[in-house]
Amino acid sequence: MEIPDTLIERLRKARCVAVLTGAGVSAESGVPTFRNAQTGLWARYDPGELASPAAFRANPALVWQWYAYRRSLVAAAEPNPGHIALAELERRIADFTLITQNVDGLHHRAGSQNVVELHGNLNRYRCFADDEPVELTTVPQDAPPPCPRCGGLVRPDVVWFGELLPPRAWRVAVAAARRCELFLCVGTSGVVHPAADLPLIARSAGAYTVEINIAPGALNGLLDLHLYAPSGHMLPALAAAAFGNAP
Ligand code: OAD
């Protein structure tokens, strides 16, 4: 797919860029997207019903095992050319904020430094009772261990449905959306709020807003430009068109 010259020019000249990524960016690493059918043992569960405080309260072992399964998928995955291109853009652009809804840590593994994890990280833990961080040296597979401080249950440090985003991460994300000249929205269905508001916040603050996705979805027609192609192809092509190939 042809990348419009106007986008290449804007990226080349921009001093401040913000990017919002979703599960689609990790799809080419073999990490299933959230709204994809689950496979194998987990096929009969709706992720929306596992990722909630109520689900954890009702069946902590089931939710813990699902996260152990997702953690194993992520451990076996490698960053793909889309992740790597975003890390490269960060090195080229003075003020670059990568905001992600992904909990897989693949942006960090690809070399990105300034990553705002809006929905937390699968490989961090906190106490379900008091929300304080918990360090685990060994991670059990079958059931959540007790919190070493209070004996409550340990949970993954991710945001579940019905929960607020980490306030600092949200503030940093909104500030980046407001001050950027160019906002890229990559591989997200744009249906989960408030993350999905960020491209619209950026657009109303004057940024040029671009969606990269394999198919039209909830953001279709709402941004300045929509590029329908896989991010593992489009992001490296865009980075190369603006800055040449990485050394
Ligand atoms: P979704 O699973 O909702 O959407 C994935 C998006 O990626 C879809 O729009 C796909 O069309 C697109 N996509 C798939 N493969 C792609 C590729 N190779 N290149 C580009 N796009 C591709 O995932 P998210 O939008 O990330 O939240 O979901 C947002 C949040 O909903 C998740 O963070 C999670 C979930 O509920 C929480 O857990 C709080």
Topology, please?
Layout: H1 5-13, E1 16-21, H2 24-27, H3 47-50, H4 53-58, H5 60-76, H6 81-92, E2 95-100, H7 106-109, E3 115-117, E4 120-127, E5 133-134, E6 154-158, H8 167-179, E7 182-186, H9 198-204, E8 208-213, E9 225-228, H10 231-243
Helix pairs in contact: 1-10, 6-10, 8-9
Describe the structure.
The protein has 247 residues and is of the alpha/beta class. It has two domains: 5-30 and 79-119 and 165-243, TPP-binding domain (Rossmann fold, 3-Layer(aba) Sandwich), CATH 3.40.50; 40-76 and 127-158, 2-Layer Sandwich (SIR2/SIRT2 'Small Domain'). Helix content is 36%, strand content 18%. It has ten helices and nine strands. The protein has helices spanning 5-13, 24-27, 47-50, 53-58, 60-76, 81-92, 106-109, 167-179, 198-204, 231-243, and strands spanning 16-21, 95-100, 115-117, 120-127, 133-134, 154-158, 182-186, 208-213, 225-228. A six-stranded parallel β-sheet has the order 3-2-1-7-8-9, with helices on both faces. A three-stranded antiparallel β-sheet has the order 5-4-6. The longest helix is centred in the first third of the chain and has 17 residues, at 60-76. The model has no long low-confidence stretch (mean pLDDT 94). It binds 2'-O-acetyl adenosine-5-diphosphoribose.
Feature tags:
SIR2/SIRT2 'Small Domain', binds 2'-O-acetyl adenosine-5-diphosphoribose, Rossmann fold, alpha/beta, 10 helices, 247 residues, 2 domains, six-stranded parallel sheet, three-stranded antiparallel sheet
